[in-house]
Amino acid sequence: MSSITLTIDGQVVRVPAGTTLLQAAERLGIQIPRLCYHPHMTPPTVCRLCVVEWEGARTLVPACVAQVREGAVIHTASERVQRARRTILELLHSAVDLSETPDVARYDAELGVDPQRFVDGVWREAPFYDDNPFYVREYEKCILCWRCVQACGDDMQFTYALTLGGRGFHTRITTFFDAPMPETTCVFCGNCVGVCPTGALKGMDEYLLERGVPMALLREEKQRRKGRLETGR
Amino acid sequence: MLVAERVVRTTCPYCGVGCQVDLHVHQGRIFRVSAPFDVAPNEGRLCVKGRFGTDFVHHPSRLTKPLIRKDLGVLPRRPVERDGFREATWDEALDLAAERLAEIVRTRGGDAIGTFCSAKATNEDTYVFQKFVRAVLGTNNIDHCARLCHAASVVALQTAIGSAAMSNSIAEMKDLDVFVVTGSNTTETHPVISTFMRQAVVHNGAKLIVVDPRGIEMTRFATLWLRQRPGTDVAVFQAMAQVIVSEGLYNREFIEARTEGFDEYACAILECTPEWAEQISGVPAEAIRQAARLYATAQAGAIYWGMGISQSVHGTENALALANLALLTGHIGRPGTGLNPLRGQNNVQGCSDSGGLPNVFPGYQRVDDASVREQFEMAWGVSLNPTPGLTTMEMAFAAEAGDIEAFYVMGENPMMSEPNLRHARHIVENLPFLLVQDIFLNETGAYADVILPATSFAEKDGTFTNSDRRVQRIRRAVSAPGEARDDWVILCDLAQRVEQKLGRTRSAGFAFSSPEEIWEEMARLTPPFRGISYERIAREGGVHWPCPTSDHPGTPYLFTETFPRGRGQFVPLRYRPSAELPDEAYPFILSTGRVLYHWHGGTLTRRSQLDDAYPEATVEIHPDDAARLGVKMGDSVRVRSRRGEIVVRVAVTVRSPRGVVFIPFHFAEAAANELTIDVLDPQAKIPDYKVCAVAVEPLAG
User: Which pairs from A27-30 meet CB under 8 Å and 24+ separation?
Assistant: First the structure.
C-alpha cells in the first residue's frame, strides 16, 4: 500500500493511503474531539465535532471519514474549527441532556462553551421508553449519533429493530411503526446499549440503581415492575 | 451516573462462543456487563444472556452452606426442597461424603461409583475432578453433558479425520463464500456466532445453505433452505454427495492426496439420487442438486452444525455424512472452510479436553494405552485403571442394575437433561448415595444426600475453552456467597479425605494453591496445552490449542497438511429411519431444543431477569395442525408420549412444519424430557432428543 505524507498542525506525518485524518492525527498524539465516532463502527459522521480545517478546502471536513491526501495541510484546532465545535456543543446543550455524555464537560472547558447561549431555544421533548425487562430508552439524552441503529443493523447485530424517524428537528431514533420493543425484531442483545455514548440507552439494573433503588432490593423491585411494563412516561 | 468500583475482564458463562466480557461491579455486585471491541471471538458483541443474564450470580437462593438430607438413608429417596435438608459444616459434609465413597471403593471397587463432571466448570476444576476419580476412586466412570450434545460429532470426526473439535475458528467466517448451517438454530443457541454468519452474507455476499426442518431465523439470510423431514438428514447429505460425484464436482487432487476409501464410497452412494432423497426427506431433488453444486464449487466452503445433527439415534451417521462432503470437496484445512460442530456449553470443549470423558485422560490420551497410562501413573504416583469407564446413560443403566451405588454430580442437572425423565427419576430414587455439588438447589439436588455449595463463574479464577479451541481466562470479580467454595477447592479437600480414609500413604497430589498451579500440572501432561500459560493468555486474550510450545502461535485452523489419523476416511452410510415414528396414537413428531432467553435445564436462566422475557414453556405447532386440533395461540394443551406427559401453552407458528411440534427443554414444570425417548446412537451412546412420537390434546375448559 502506498504511503502518504501530510502536515497536521505543523507536524509532518507519513501514513498509509486510506488512513483517516482522525487516525493520522492520533499517530501524532493529537486527540480530535468526537461524539458519534466509534473506532469499531461505521462512522455516522453526524456530530461534526471532529471537523478540521483543510487548507484550500471550502468547508471544514469531518476528520472521522476524510482520508489523507499527499501534501494536505490540516489544522485541527484553528479558530474556525474551535468556533464550529463550540457552536455545535452550545446548540446541543440547548436541546439535549448531555449530563452523561463523556468528555462533554472537558470539551466545554477547553472550547469555552457557554451552555446557556441558546437557552431560549426549543428543548427537544423526547420520549422515555420503559417497555422491556432489560433496558430503558431515555431519548432526552439522545444526540442522534445513530450508533444504536448501526449496531442493531449492519455493524453488529443484523437484526434491524431500530431506525430513524421524523424529519429535521423532530428526527428521532425509534422502532418501525413506533412499536414497543418486545413487538419488534429486537432480541435484547443490548449491543445498542453497549455503544450508546450518552446514557440514553441503559441497562435496567443500572437505571434502577441510579434512581435510588438499593442494591439489596433490586430483584424485588424488578419483580414488582414485572407485568406493569408500559410505553411512555 | 453509576461508577464501577472495578471492571473485571472474564469469559461469558453461557454458550460455547466464549464471548469476552467486562463485569462492572458496584457494592460487590455486577450491575453492568459490557464487551471489549478489540478482542476475539466476539469483538464487542454480546447476546441477551451474556449482557443481561448474569444476575443469577446474586440470586437469593444461591447455596451458601453445605447441606445434608434430613432423612438420610431412607430409600426410595424423595425429591425435597430446601427444608428437606439441614445445614452442616464443611467438615461434616465432606467427611460424610468421603466416608461413603471410600466405603464403596473398599467394598465394591471404584467402578461402583459414577461421576458427572461439568461443562460449566473450568478446565482446572475438570482436571482435578478426573484426577480424583481416576487416581483416588480408581475408576474411569466419568462423563459429562458432552455425551448428550456432541458425542456423535466426536465419534464421527474421530472416525473420519481423527480429531473432534471445530476445525476452524469463528473469526474465519470472513473468509468463506459458501456455508452450510444444519441442525443449528444459531441465532438462538449461538447468537454471537450468528451475527458473524449474517455479516458474511450481508457484507461479503457469502451464500448460506440452511438444512433444517424448522423455519429458523437464519433461513431469512439463506440462498437455499432445504427443509427435510426430521431425522432424514443422512438421505439429504448422501444425495448431495451423489450429485458431487456424478457431476464430477469433487476435488480429485485433494481426494488422492489426503483421503482413503473414495472408490468404495463413490460406488456405495450411486443409488442415493436426489429423487431417492426427495422421497425420504421431502426436500425437492432440484434443491439438493443446487445445494451440492453451490457447496462443491465454492472457493472456501464451511459446514456448521449443532444438536440437530448429533442428538439422534443416527447422530454419528449424520456427522459422518457431513465429513464425507468436506472430504469430497476438499473444504477443510484452509481458512474459512472446515467441519465445525458448534459446542453448546461455555466449557464443553474444555471439559472434554481436560479429561472429563470415560475413555481418555486430558488431551484425548487414551486410558487403555499403556504408555499413556504410565506417564500419568508416574506423575500421580498411583496405578491407574486401564478399562474405559461408562458413559452418562450407561452409568444410569448400571445404577438401575445395582452395579453402581453412588453418583457424584458436579454442576450438572441430569434430572432435567436426561431423556425419559420418569425412568431417570426411578433410577435415582433407588440409588444408595447421591453427592451433588452446585451453585443452586436444582432438580438433581432435590434428590441429593449431600450438597456442596460451589462458586459461580464470577467468583473464581480459571480457564474456559470455547467452541473454536480458544483457551480463555475467567477471573474473580465478586466474592462468593456465604461459605461457598470453588469447585477445585472442594475437590482437593474431598480427594484428600478419601485418600486418608482409604489409608493411602502417598497422595496423588491435591495440594494445589491456585488454579494456575493446576493448569501448569495439566499442561505438563497434555502435549497440545504445553505452550499455553496464564501469563500468555493474559497477553494474547486467548490461545487456540494445539499449542505445543511457548513459542508456538496456537492453531486457529487445523489439518493444513494432514489429519491426525493420516488420511481422511470416507465412510459409506445407509439411511436408517428414526427409532420412534408417528402413528395413529401418537401422530406428531416431537423435536426439542432451546430458545434465546434460556439455558439448558434452566438452573441459571430461570433465576434471572431473562425469565421475565420468556416465563413459560410453549409448544410450537403449525397453523394447520392447530386448526385441526381446534387450539389457538396461548391455549393450554396436553402433550403425551409413551413415556410421560406435560401441559404447555400453544404457540402457533409456521416455524414448525406440519406434523412436527417443538418444545424447549428449559422448564421444569413442563419438562420436555418427560416425553423424549432414551434410545441411543449405537456408537456415540447419545440419546435422540429430536425425534419421538407424541400426541397433542386440547385441555377441556
Answer: A30/A76
CB B33 within 8 A of CB B24: yes
The CATH topology of domain B151-342 is: Dimethylsulfoxide Reductase; domain 2 (3.40.228)
Q: Which residues pair with B438 in a beta bridge?
A: B453
pTM: 0.95
Q: Best residue in A134, A154, A211, A225 to probe B by mutation, most B CBs within 10 Å?
A: A134
With a cut of 50, say whether residue B556 has pLDDT above it: yes
ipTM of the complex: 0.94
Look up residue B460 and give its three cell numbers: 473464581
- Is it true that the peptide bond before B41 is cis, omega within 30 degrees of 0? yes
3-state secondary structure of A195: helix
Q: What is the pLDDT of residue B559?
A: 87
Residues A157-166: pLDDT tens digits? 999 999 999 9
Kindly state the greatest CA–CA separation across chain A.
Answer: 64
Q: Give percent of chain B with pLDDT exceeding 70.
A: 100
CATH topology of domain B67-144+350-462+478-502: Rossmann fold (3.40.50)
Query: What dotted CATH number matches A1-123?
Result: 3.10.20.740
Peptide bond into B76 cis (omega under 30): yes
Per DSSP, helices labelled H in B120-270 are 123-131, 146-149, 151-160, 186-189, 191-204, 233-246, 252-258, 262-268
What is the dotted CATH code of the domain comprising B6-58? 2.20.25.90
Which cell numbers hold the place of B510? 491435591
Residue A115, classed as helix, strand or coil, is: coil
Rounded Cα distance between B568 and B332, Å, is 10
Under an 8 A CB cutoff, do A189 and B46 touch? Answer: yes
CATH topology of domain A128-225: Alpha-Beta Plaits (3.30.70)
- How far is it, in rounded angstroms, from Cα B669 to Cα B672? 9
| Model pLDDT, residue A229 | 52
Cross-chain residue pair B47–A193, CB shorter than 8 Å: no
Q: Which residues of B356-395 are buried (b: 16+ CB within 10 A; e: fewer)?
A: bbbbbbbbbbebeeeebbeebeeebebebbeeebbbbbbb
Instruction: Find, in chain B, the residue whose alpha carbon is nearest to that of A100.
Output: B1
Number of residues written out for chain A: 233
| Beta-strand relationship, A135-138 and A128-129 | antiparallel
What are the boundaries of each domain within chain B? 6-58, 67-144+350-462+478-502, 151-342, 588-698
Which 3 state secondary structure label does DSSP give B409? strand
C-alpha B367/C-alpha B149 separation (Å) is 22
Residues of chain A that touch chain B, judged by Cβ-Cβ distance less than 8 Å: 39-40, 99-100, 132-135, 154, 156-158, 182, 187-191, 193-195, 199, 203-206, 209-210, 215, 218-219, 222, 226
* Of B666, B692, B670, the residue nearest B679 (C-alpha): B692
